[in-house]
Amino acid sequence: MQTVNEYISLLQDKLNGITNQNEIRQFGFLLMNCLRGYSYTEFLTCKEEQLTDKEIDFLNSAIVRLQKQEPIQHITGQTEFMGLIFKTDKRALIPRPETEELVYLITNDFSDQISNILDVGTGTGCIPISLKKQWPKANVETWDVSDDAISLAKENAELNHVEIIFSKIDVLASPNIQRKYDLLVSNPPYVTISEKKVMDENVLNYEPHLALFVEDTEPLVFYDAIATLGTKALLPGGYIYFEINEMFGKEVCQLLDAKNYKKAMVITDLLGKDRFVKAVWPG
């Protein structure tokens, strides 16, 4: 039999040179959290506990997958976002901390109930589901062009006990508007093709490129389409929020200004990078 501590030592040995020791310890915690539901404190105090044969098989398989730089969230099948658990796999991008900041930004900006919310680019469903948890009475709708993403997001809505309206819609195809919204939010594809060369293998090899990349010649193609959508879909005084590529904050604001939005501004993330843009539709 193997103890938790012996497994962590094996994990550190096998992943040495692939990633740093802090991340390896985090991997160990996330794997034990997946297997046994341990909190971080419980993980720190369980080092001499014996692992079962089934757990050892899973953990040895995890080492092989981590050596291939598969994301830990795909191995555990889940991640935490806004205090909620979301299923994660190849069907959609893994939720990032920056997107969590976007949701915090929105929820901190609005003290009152929001009635109608549209999210464009469903992914795992982390944005619309988190907003529905914040405002349970709101009608929350989300669009995506990917059947895979929508299927995963539906599973996450069920997991988190919320009702969301899911629609397969291509925002680049000038969709018809069925209702008006108080809030339009999107974390669209914004990584340019030329940025691929500096990206990690675990992203390039395991996450859907459809949700990541835009052509260098049209880096704002989704922002333009979604901003145009907002001119028809937002109620007077409604807000639009974007997560953005840090290189294009000024350009996104200029795009919104050109479409007659007001108060467009760039907001930095916790690392001080231009990461979000918000504006008001005056109607």
TrEMBL record:
Record's keyword terms, sorted: Methyltransferase, S-adenosyl-L-methionine, Transferase
GO molecular function: nucleic acid binding; peptide chain release factor N(5)-glutamine methyltransferase activity
Record domain Release factor glutamine methyltransferase N-terminal: where: 30-77
Domain Methyltransferase small: 110-195
Lineage: Bacteria, Pseudomonadati, Bacteroidota, Bacteroidia, Marinilabiliales
Pfam families named among the record's database cross-references: MTS, PrmC_N
Protein name: peptide chain release factor N(5)-glutamine methyltransferase
Top-level EC class: transferase
GO biological process: methylation
Catalytic activity: L-glutaminyl-[peptide chain release factor] + S-adenosyl-L-methionine = N(5)-methyl-L-glutaminyl-[peptide chain release factor] + S-adenosyl-L-homocysteine + H(+)
Enzyme Commission numbers on file: 2.1.1.297
